[in-house]
Amino acid sequence: MSAAQDLDALYQEIILDHYKNPHGKGLREPAAAQRSADVHHVNPTCGDEITLRVHVEGEPGSERVADVSYDAVGCSISQASASVLHELLVGKTIDEAMNVHGEFLALMQGKGTVEPDEEVLEDGIAFAGVAKFPARVKCALLSWMAWKDATVQARG
Ligand code: ZN
């Protein structure tokens, strides 16, 4: 195998692992003193759906992502992406999380030309391969768009 094929195989393995063992799946009730918002997003071109709830805590200006809980149906890419999102964003301040969100968006909209930063995106680098396929980009972005939508609402 070439180096590029090795990388594609590694990316596929990461996505499959998150698909089989999703992090943070299931809708959870926010704890006292947390604010939350629910959204439902659909990707009609593939049939992916997600109901996503963001729990936010802390004072305005230093709010944190306390939890992201979700129920999702659809393809392996959409579901693995929600799992990676949970792993990457929970515990971060909203400003930090928005920064990671921006990096992931840039990667997915880069048509395969953006070199992913593993320091920032961790397992999210696996979607670099998906970025080359326009039809699948929406699958990978579904949960990320839902997260941003819910977070804006939860902040109030
Ligand atoms: Zn899909």
Question: Key features?
Answer:
156 residues, alpha+beta, Sufe protein. Chain: A, three-stranded antiparallel β-sheet, 5 helices, globular, binds zinc ion
In CATH, the architecture is: Alpha-Beta Complex
Main sheet attributes: strand count, strand direction, barrel closure: 3 strands, antiparallel
The top level CATH class name: Alpha Beta
Structural class: alpha+beta
Question: From the alpha-carbon coordinates, what is the Rg to the nearest angstrom?
Answer: 15 Å
Distance between the termini: 51 Å
Task: Characterise the protein shown here.
The chain has about 160 residues and is of the alpha+beta class. The protein has one domain (about 5-155): Sufe protein. Chain: A (Alpha-Beta Complex), CATH 3.90.1010. It is about 45% helix and about 20% strand. The protein has helices at about 5-20, 75-90, 95-110, 120, 135-155; strands at about 35-45, 50-55, 65-75. The chain has a three-stranded antiparallel β-sheet with strand order 1-2-3, with helices on one face. A hairpin with a 6-residue loop joins strand 2 and strand 3. Helix 1 crosses helix 2 (about 75-90), helix 2 (about 75-90) runs parallel beside helix 5 and helix 3 (about 95-110) runs antiparallel to helix 5 (about 135-155). The chain is globular, with a radius of gyration of 15 Å. Bound molecules: zinc ion. Zinc ion binds next to helix 2.
